[in-house]
Design a protein that fits this description.
about 170 residues; alpha+beta; 3-stranded antiparallel β-sheet; about 40% helix; metal-binding; HARBI1_dom; DDE Tnp4 domain-containing protein; metal ion binding
């Protein structure tokens, strides 16, 4: 990323932050995407082109994807044994190496293809995600992409972790 333009930002309490405008824009685009703010609002508020918005979002998603395999991974047998011991000591769960729960990531609008499938029990359009964490809250497995109308149990039943719990080595589903 270019970092030629430097901007100073001062808060109401007088705290000044100096940052490169491209990093600031990248942060804004990523935040806007997470909050599902339409890109036209980002363009209008930040005086940057719609193409730049798409570039920043692409860069952010590429970075997340690049680091997923090194940060989200299933523990090896030795690490599973240690985790299971801690889970037993802390919570009384025998032979447990993680806890799994489902969540919904809301979409800004109804998808054009099979949109009704994405209408969730929470009366909005969303994508379902199933996340497994260990005892220290490290994400060990994640399944994202099922429509919001799909129950967590169906996502779990079709996940690699449920089908092959002892051999799961990555999160690609």
């Amino acid at each position: 990323m270019r970092s030629s333009t430097i901007r100073n930002f001062t808060s109401t309490s007088g705290f000044t932050v100096t940052c490169f405008s491209d990093w600031l824009n990248w942060y804004r685009m990523t935040l806007s995407s997470c909050l599902q703010v339409p890109s036209r609002f980002v363009v209008e508020q930040n005086f940057i082109s719609k193409g730049s918005v798409h570039n920043y979002l692409f860069r952010a998603s590429t970075a997340v994807t690049k680091f997923e395999s090194s940060t989200v991974n299933w523990p090896d047998p030795a690490e599973r044994k240690l985790t299971a011991g801690r889970m037993n000591d802390k919570y009384g769960f025998v032979n447990c190496v993680g806890v799994t729960d489902g969540t919904l990531f809301p979409l800004a609008s109804k998808p054009s293809s099979h949109g009704e499938d994405y209408y969730s029990r929470k009366a909005s359009y969303s994508v379902n995600a199933l996340i497994t964490c260990d005892d220290v809250a490290r994400v060990r497995d994640i399944v994202v992409g099922w429509p919001g109308s799909v129950h967590d149990n169906r996502v779990w039943t079709n996940s690699r972790l449920a089908m092959r719990p002892k051999t799961t080595s990555n999160t690609t589903n």
